[in-house]
Write a structure and sequence with these properties.
alpha/beta
């Protein structure tokens, strides 16, 4: 009821409209905004650092410019940088969303009062009323991997992927990573080992993706 009052919706895990790929990862219900949103999968999911450096931000901006040209939809996370980027991209006419770890209720209230007409979609499998829940962060990263056709890692710290190697290989996701100068050999090994293909921005993205 509370979510309905702000124009958000809920897809139960047991519902036929629940995204198939996400079901293979979690049994949590999916909260979303606006309520008339009916497509929960995106062309690309971007995984970036929680506080990206200038080089990473530039790379992401070049990539999203490519997405605008291709009219490809993009799913981002819930950091301040990503929320701001999602607002910008929506204003430029791109279908984009932010998958939030938790607290979608307050985020919906904030975004619905934003002046611009085109707004990003919001999604979450975390508690809708808890402002920030650290343990929901990792599930939210995975959820957005399972809600997209292609996952693109821009974060340079990727060694944490080693821990989830088996799970990610079994999920048969379509994975890519930006070969940042800040990536250590361990980071590159961890992301390559799950089958991700490396790229840099000198390639023609249209040919690569």
């Amino acid at each position: 009821k509370l979510l309905g009052s702000v124009g958000a919706g809920l897809v139960k895990y047991t519902s036929d409209t629940y995204p198939k790929k996400l079901r293979s990862y979690t049994k949590k219900d999916l909260y979303y905004y606006p309520r008339q949103q009916n497509n929960f999968t995106y062309d690309y999911s971007i995984v970036c650092s929680s506080k990206p450096e200038a080089d990473e931000m530039d790379a992401i901006r070049k990539f999203v410019d490519f997405c605008i040209l291709e009219k490809s939809s993009v799913l981002l996370g819930g950091t301040a940088f990503e929320k701001k980027l999602a607002l910008e991209l929506s204003a430029r006419g791109l279908v984009c969303g932010c998958l939030l770890p938790s607290g979608i209720y307050n985020s919906v209230k904030k975004i619905s009062s934003a002046k611009q007409e085109e707004k990003p979609n919001l999604l979450s499998i975390g508690n809708p009323q808890v402002a920030f829940d650290k343990k929901e962060f990792m599930p939210s990263v995975f959820a957005r991997m399972y809600l997209s056709g292609k996952v693109v890692f821009f974060a340079s710290k990727l060694a944490w992927l080693e821990k989830y190697n088996g799970q990610l290989k079994r999920a048969s996701l379509n994975l890519f990573f930006y070969e940042s100068k800040c990536c250590s050999p361990q980071d590159v090994a961890a992301v390559s080992d799950i089958g991700a293909k490396g790229f840099d921005l000198d390639v023609q993205l249209g040919k690569f993706f």
